[in-house]
Amino acid sequence: MSSVQEMNPRVRGIRATVSLQSLAARLTEEIMQGAKKPFKKVTDVSSGDPQRAGMSPISFVRQVLAVCLYPQLLKEKSLPLDVRQRAQKLLGSCGGGSVGSYSKTSCGIPHVHKSVAEFITRRDGGVSSHPENIIFSSGSQKTLSLVLHLMASGEGETQTGVLTPVPCPHTLPMLLDETGVALMPYQLMEGRGWALDLDELHQALKTARGRCEPRAIYISNPGNPTGHVQDRKTMEEVIRFAATEGLVLLAEEVYQDSVFGQGREFLSYKKVLFEMGKKYSETVELISFNSISSASMGECGLRGGYMEVINMDPAVNNYLRSMQGTSSPPVLPQLALEVMVNPPSPGDPSYETYTQEIRRTLTTLSQNAQRACEFLNDLPGMNCQPAMAGVFLYPSLHLPPQMIEEAKMLGVEADVLYCQRFLEEEGVCLGSGCENGQEDQNYHIRLCVLAPPATLEEVLARLRSFHLLQLGRFP
Amino acid sequence: MSVLQEISPNVKNMKQLEYVVLARRASQIMEELRKGARKPYSEVIDVSWGDPHRAGVKPLSFVRQVLAACLYPELVNSNKLPVDVRQRAQRLLGQCAGGSIGSYTATAGIAEIVHRVSEFITRRDGGAPSHPENIFISAGSQWALQNILKVLVNSKSSPKTGVLTPVPCHCTTTLSIMGLGAVVIPYYLSEEQGWELQVEELDRALESAKGVCNPVALYVINPGNPSGHIQRRKSIQEVIRFVSEKKLFLLADEVYQGCVYGEKSEFISYKRVLAEMGPPLSDTVELASFHSASKGFMGECGMRGGYVELINLDPDVMKYIYKLFSKDSCAPVLGQIALDLMINPPQPGDPSYPLYNVETQNIRTMLVHNVKRAFEVVNSLPGFCCQPVEGGAFAFPRLHLPPKAIQKAKEVGLQPDTFYCIRLLEEAGVLISPGCEYGQKEGTHHIRFCIMTSEVMMEELLRRLTCFHTQFMKDFS
Q1: B17–A322: do the CB atoms touch at under 8 Å?
Q2: Residues of A in contact with B49 (CB under 8 A)
Q3: Which of A256, A319, B219, B445 has the CA that lies 20 to 30 A from A294?
Q4: How far, in Å, CA of A404 to CA of B181, rounded?
Q5: Entry pTM
Q6: What is the pLDDT of residues B245-273, one digit of tens each?
């Protein structure tokens, strides 16, 4: 295989990624070599990575994990008692009492499955969840890719397709390409705070049917990057739609812990499904995804996620569970997940600190989202829908035609050009809307607002100065 | 997707592991024991996977201390931990975005760790240079292997893509190959010569693929799993010449390079041999070498840290490989750190060195002892024949089953060696795995068990095996 021609054509077909990350790395390198720039370091707010931006992890989580890693700390009196007790219990669920052993099953550690199932049951007001329906992997993207791999088949008109929202999480398009599944877009309604519109769904399905075999619909709720929280009515419509059209419902719900919008509440697709009665709750195939990269935990580097599989044919379920057999999920992230779904209770020594830390994170998030939204809306040519949840803001960019022309000549999307320039001149790395699947001239940028307020202020100040400069260049 | 027909055919083709049957039964037995059932044993010994910690081997203190300090940096400032531990943690945290292991890292891994991996490889290979841009850290070596396979295998092609794979071979690789829609082209290792790889057999295997599939790659695992064989330099050279001549991509799985026991055995990497063979081979043979933090004396299987080094690949192809790795964001940060600790252990003079040295020496002594004991005991039992275990984590003895046992197995619908394993599990509480899981010559049977256990566990294991085997052979004579 000495050339690109001999490569697997499907890999060749993975869409080109925007390489802002490598530009950022190069700039960081240059600064380290002593180059003078208008910024001391590169600030990356393009992914949902709060700890990168300086947010602190949750103490209880890190303490428990540290003790699990180095059990000598079980004797360490300076660590709270509940930390040590939890670590002991978790270590007991690991082979040989060590986090260095493979998980007992290729789907994860049974004790953790149980805790997750209990968490889901509590969250959904008693709708029961079964440990055997829970599968872990290294992050929600990985669990999603298992499902896509299972569904993928055919090509051309028979290729499996998934109805995908525009905008969608920026890691999704590549994942679909890589598993050989067609991305069939359905537009979210920007003017209505990025709500999902059922007519648009129907239209998208009709279009999709002409081009591929749609098998599933992907939902991100709370929306990544939109920050929209779906209401029950919409969710019921989606479920009815999936039921009528025979589509599997893929519900990515990673930011479920971060709802800050007034009068909004997160409802899981599972809960809504079960409250619609047997006709739906026993037939609609639903897979829900969650992970420890959530807003309050922010443990993106640990790589831990799970999916709950509902109403899937047991024979299919078996395949799903055995596919993971070729790569065991990491142990520590599963333990982090256990702590996430089973936090300290009132009365426990760590309860106060834990609750304060979570509250502080969510308050910061809510304040930042509001501040940033107002700020961005004040800039000419920028329009930002208020977010109700999640860690991103996703403002639209009205770019001067000359800039769009310039981008065309350079062979890049205009929003990418905007982000590249911003990175070079101000050292801040944003995400561009085309990564989130926006393919028309409807330009957007994406930024993570879960950061220490001072960091956010600096990002916003630099953005304003850069943005006004751009507009000034093309009056 | 409520009907089986709708599943991707590639997934359907992945065979069900025998392990599943055994594991289920083991779970049941453990549950029965917990409920107080009376059995001739009080716990199940599980040596079916290469998982040292599960089998009682202790983790290395230095590794765990550094990882704990990285997780909970307050420990860095306390003096509960040795100075070099705290310094290492501080250095590593300094390379993490936001000073936290909770942040995403660069796709290929934390830059400094990638650099250190390349330095490790250069040291290991007597100076043959290694470049950081050719290295990707991944969540375990199998993950990296899958990404490379994805580039090589066209699941839609007709005829299908083929990968030459040894028999016996551990099942994760064969499953990955099948799951991607490629075909395994088996080449048989020579049991009587200690599971040696013979080039004539590679030729035969390649011939057999003519008209059946399109071979693109050769997969070797050295030290062998489950064979325990360590390839000699001459054999490695022959393989390199073979792939060059036949224009195959070479996948060298070297995760057990840290586990070498034979007194005269020495691990030499494919990269080193290739570099020392000089141009044109050293500039043209496409090679991917894999390593991991799961094997070796660290045994940190649960951390999921591994890497792949890619040699002589077209730069454009490398760009696509980067893309593939980037869709998983990055490898788990703790796994990356575990990798760094494996390749850069404490040095003489460091405060942690004495303890580290004692612990690793103990593990080494234990493994050498286990290998010797397993070899002696198993070979002394009639019906068993075990090749020397030069390296790796397993013993893979041949089992000559009496015809009556084979008959009985057929009656209950099991493979003969699986039947043996189920009986061993039920009557002696020992969980091992059957040779049919790994592939073997038609009509032969084997068992595989992990030798990375505590000495006490090994003795108990061998005692139970001896007892059971003697009875079994009597029952079916």
Answers
A1: yes
A2: 102
A3: A319
A4: 43
A5: 0.82
A6: 999 999 999 999 999 987 788 999 999 99
